[in-house]
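Re-run with default settings, no changes from the original entry. Doing this only to confirm the output is reproducible before filing.
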Amino acid sequence: MSYLYKQLISSDTELLKKLLGVFAEVFAEPETYQGAVPRDAYLQELLKRPHFIALVALDGEAVIGGLAAYVLEKFEQERNEIYIYDLAVLAPHRRKGIATALIHTLQVMAKEKKAYVIFVQADPGDTPAIRLYESLGTKEDVYHFDILPTT
């Protein structure tokens, strides 16, 4: 099967909404990804920004996977990092190289954006994600902390 990989641009708000649906299904978090979908104007502006990257995998017209990533400008050197915030592929399309192809597409973009590294987190129990990321990069043992804003 042949899939098409596309970087979303400001006119692709419907594809971004479909990607939100993929994330909702794969992560079993409908409230997070479908409970308050942003307005088209918000999504258009987000897709215009150079620090936000959205890639989708298409099977015909259907969004069957994708990723959302952020370009982080560094201060210690004139370079960038890219953080993969979310990456998902619908269950019927897994184990077909789609996630790897999405990351490879991002790797090409990373060079254009002067990024020296792409990084991603995986939950300890998410064995398929961990295996994927280990096949593409170096694992580091780190802690993740959520710090809430002051009220």
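The mean pLDDT is 95. Strands lie at 4-7, 52-59, 62-73, 80-89, 115-120.
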